[in-house]
Amino acid sequence: MTQNDSNILSLFLEQIKQMKSYEEALGVLYWDLRTGAPRKGMEVRSEVIGNLSAQLFKLSTAPELGEWLTELEKPAVYAELSEINQRLVTETRKEYDRSIKIPPKLHQEYVVLTSQAESLWEEAKEKNDYASFELYLDKIITYSNQFIDLWGVKEGSRYDTLLDAYEPGMTTAELDKVFGGLREKLVPLSAAIAASPHQPKTDFLKQTYAKEAQKSFSLFILKQMGFDFAAGRLDESAHPFATGLNPGDVRITTRYLIDDVVSALFGTIHEGGHALYEQNISKDLIGTTLATGTSMGIHESQSRFWENVIGRSKPFWNRYYKDLQQHFPNQLEIPVEDFYRATNVVQPSLIRIEADELTYNLHIIIRYEIEKLIFNEGVKASELPALWNEKYKEYLGVEPENDSEGVLQDVHWSGGAFGYFPSYSLGNMYAAQITNTLETELPNFWELVEEGNLLPIKEWLTEKVYQYGKLRTPSELIIAITGKPLDPDHLVAYLEKKYKDIYKL
Amino acid sequence: MTQNDSNILSLFLEQIKQMKSYEEALGVLYWDLRTGAPRKGMEVRSEVIGNLSAQLFKLSTAPELGEWLTELEKPAVYAELSEINQRLVTETRKEYDRSIKIPPKLHQEYVVLTSQAESLWEEAKEKNDYASFELYLDKIITYSNQFIDLWGVKEGSRYDTLLDAYEPGMTTAELDKVFGGLREKLVPLSAAIAASPHQPKTDFLKQTYAKEAQKSFSLFILKQMGFDFAAGRLDESAHPFATGLNPGDVRITTRYLIDDVVSALFGTIHEGGHALYEQNISKDLIGTTLATGTSMGIHESQSRFWENVIGRSKPFWNRYYKDLQQHFPNQLEIPVEDFYRATNVVQPSLIRIEADELTYNLHIIIRYEIEKLIFNEGVKASELPALWNEKYKEYLGVEPENDSEGVLQDVHWSGGAFGYFPSYSLGNMYAAQITNTLETELPNFWELVEEGNLLPIKEWLTEKVYQYGKLRTPSELIIAITGKPLDPDHLVAYLEKKYKDIYKL
Asked: Which of A101, A121, A147 is the last residue of a domain?
């Protein structure tokens, strides 16, 4: 590498580090806003966040960054870069091109529009008034279509351009295939479950369960999973989340419901799964934009693996039920088998975030199909409520009584996050496929869970997934781990096995 | 004002707002570091802080900022500015000139040196090894002398240039006068107290006092003072502090000692006093660098007013003692008079931060006299331990057994904060002088305290002090409130009255 190229590489890496500093500072500010920042300081704090974000955007779209990228992409130069720097160049180029293609004025209009729309959505949902939100939703769709035009469309499906932001490389063609396979199996399975005479009892889950004991048990389970409290913390917030500020500072939150013994617990395990990913990214990636999860889908695979595959399994409760009982003396006097079945009730319902592990995927497929219609077929906001209700009836056998429990239930569209929903089900599918390999490569996998020896599982996932951060794409990762591309059959097989047992089908 | 000047004013105000955004973001990051940020994230976080600080320094020393100032300072332009903008120009000019006079390389060397020295000081203090620290202290003194040369010296006293950074306009000449007056009265008063046969009993203060009850009582008192919990919060940290991020977000911390019933309480009231100042700065100053306390001395006057004048007064405990007793059933069965006297024990001691309200000032005077010798007489680091011990013997009648409890006890010098110490006693003097006026202007002042009606006192201070932020200088403020400049006699009179009663002199 020439002296000049070596200088350019240093400037490039320094710029990335600067960008990363702003991202981390903004991460702390957002965490703070959601975990107890005083209300009256919010207005000024929003401006601070706006100013820092603008500075970050300026760094990310700086003309010199484009020039450095062009130089580093020259084959002779690129070939001499380390693997990490090569990927950094590729990733930065992708982000850079996406960002500079949007005229700053358009970007700013969009930021203002979506921030207004989020408040309006909240009001519309509360008042069950879709009409007041419809106009804004159409505007957001129009902007998203403009972005698609500016970013460019590959091979015909406009929706692919949006998908790519959350799950790099994912296409409508592939999702049609995997979601099709999933829907075909899950709709009848869900119906068979509903018809089973062996419905679990769940009433005992709803008593008063002291918050302090819930917290103490959640912390205990996080420790068992290998969550590193010297590199993270657990707080409370209205909507639980995980945020990886850097691998040495990964924070999660939960929300304790005192009339539910498992709600906060499964929430904590879920966010804990996200956190294990972020805490175990290789030290070599620190200070680069690769020090984060590779996609929303892979991230979600880790939260769902820990929450559902592990946390809602029989071996897990065979080991930990007695600890839970000790935390709530005289409150859980039913057998572990009944407890396990109660935490795995399947019940088609209207609200996604309250759905069980099985029907959850049908909620996602509905949203996916609607988003496709919007961007590939030009469906308008006015048509969405009817479309929504029809699909809920068809796939889940339930029908919303009003739009608040229907098309207005999720925040995503008001923020313009079209293409995000599929990540949730991709997470379930990745998790099942990875579990399938795990069961072969750690042959005593379920014994480890039953012994409460969860650390080897964390180590295995670190080796296969966590350490790489964004160094591998989702498809590279899933092929390297499991030997083949994403395959929905693993999720189907996992769900069939689990629920045929629980519902004695 | 011409269109051009009006544009310049906008650019200037926008730059100030940007600087303020960085200050606020850094404020949140520091608060976070001190209230529970995970240890393993610190290294990366330090870099983030370094990058943001560098950006702030760049904004504060931007050549265009200098050009805008020059234009706005032209008499015809300046005359047309609002009062706030005039003061903003003056303040910014002062900071700007201080900053640009230091060559960036020198500034960076100094930042590295003092950050090393702080760690070294900590080690030296722990190991009682002044020799290992002496070389660094000499270096820091040399840098400070270079800064004095670069900043310039007015009227002969080199130390004045350092004082001005913490207490604008304060001089050695004035401090010699006020501290002289103070020392002359306090040394004999302290001796008379020590000789009194009427020493308060204090053993009952030291029992096990449950942390939760201490916290609940501290929160109760903060509410009584008018601390706005929608514009602030109370957390825990190893060293209590207050930080005003913006007037709508002012955070304080405390540290609960379970074997001491008043330590955390008086700490909380102290920081609460700082917080009332920051929460009640006028909305008109938000987004400008004037939205903060006008000087360290005035800030300290407010924390000490609430902690000592109010919190350690008899009327206060006549009102609140029964609440304290209720928080600790069966633990405080002594009369209120004894409790009041116990919280006001005077005892000459070696450690400043543990000193009582009276002898505290002698600790400060010793540091002041030593700092003057360093910068005005060229005294070297090697001479400080002996000097320190002599002065402790002379003023307080006690002598350190080693340097850890002597010259090594405070962090300030390792960070180069020469000129800071006087603020603490200035705070006591300002507080006493303001109290004197308060007693006249709110004639039922002590009755209000005895009734637990503290809000009118907060309102009076808001009107006289808090609302102005940095819009008035300390001396403008004290003259506007009390009709005369700083006068140590008020503190002397206050202390004599209080302690002659307590010790029956």
From this structure: A101
Is B387 part of any domain?
no
Q: Domain check: are A443 and A324 in the same one?
A: yes
* Number of H-type helices and E-type strands within chain B: 21, 3
Strands of the sheet with A232-236, listed across from one edge: A232-236, A249-254, A242-246
Q: Which two tokens stand for residue B293?
A: 């306390």
Buried b (16+ CB within 10 A) or exposed e, A356-389: bbbbbbbbbbbbbbbbbbbbeeebebeebbebbb
- Determine the residue of chain A that is closest to B54 in CA distance: A18
Distance in angstroms between the alpha carbons of the first and the last residue of chain A: 65
Closest A-chain CA to B53:
A21
CB proximity A53 to B under 8 Å:
no
CB contact under 8 A, B28 and A24: no
Could you tell me if B263 and B313 are in contact, meaning their C-beta atoms sit under 8 angstroms apart? no
CA dist., res. A117 & res. B217, Å (int): 43
Q: Is A52 near chain B, with CB under 8 Å?
A: yes
CB atoms within 10 A of CB B293: 23
* Residue A305 shares a structural domain with residue A435: yes
Query: Cβ–Cβ of A41/B246 closer than 8 Å?
Result: yes
Q: Given A68, A101, A134, which residue is the final one in a domain?
A: A101
Residues 6+ apart with CB under 8 A from A361: A182, A186, A425, A428, A491
Contacts of B18 in chain A (CB under 8 A): 51
Which residue in B has a C-alpha nearest to residue A244's C-alpha?
Answer: B41
> What's the pLDDT tens digit per position in A94-153?
999 999 999 988 988 998 899 889 889 999 999 999 999 999 999 999 999 999 999 999
Same domain, B321 and B437: yes
Any CB–CB contact under 8 A between A21 and chain B?
Answer: yes
Contact A40 B230 (CB under 8 A): yes
Q: Which residues of A touch B233 (CB under 8 A)?
A: 36, 38
ipTM: 0.93
B490 is in an annotated binding site: no
Q: Is pLDDT at A206 greater than 90 in this prediction?
A: no
Q: What is the pLDDT of residues B352-365, one digit of tens each?
A: 998 999 999 999 99
Same domain, A458 and A324: yes
- In tens, the pLDDT along B404-441 reads 999 999 999 999 999 999 999 999 999 999 999 999 99
Distances (CA, A) of B307 to B5, B316, B499: 47, 11, 16
In a domain, A257, yes or no: yes
Catalytic residue ranges of B: 271
Q: State the residue range of the domain holding B473.
A: 203-343+427-502
For residue B55, give how far its alpha carbon lies from the nearest alpha carbon of chain A (Å): 10
Q: Is residue A286 part of a domain?
A: yes
Structure tokens at B421: 């110490």
CA distance A240 to chain B (A): 19
* Nearest chain B Cα distance for residue A94, angstroms: 25
Catalytic residue (choose from A167, A271, A278, A357): A271
Residue B260 is encoded by which pair of tokens? 């001491």
On whether any CB of chain A is under 8 Å from the CB of B58, the answer is no
Q: Which CATH number does the domain housing residue A326 bear?
A: 1.10.1370.30
Q: Which residues contact B224 (CB under 8 A, 6 or more apart)?
A: B320, B452, B454
Domain count within chain B: 2
Q: Report whether B212 belongs to an annotated binding site.
A: no
* DSSP output for B379-416: --GGGHHHHHHHHHHHHHS---SSGGGTTTS-SGGGGT
Specify burial of residue B197 (Cβ count, 10 A radius: 0-12, 13-18, 19+): exposed
Contact B45 A37 (CB under 8 A): no
Which is nearest to A499 in space by CA: A187, A181, A190? A190
**B73 plus B208 within the same structural domain:** no
- CB of B245 within 8 Å of a chain A CB? The answer is yes
B69 located within any domain:
yes
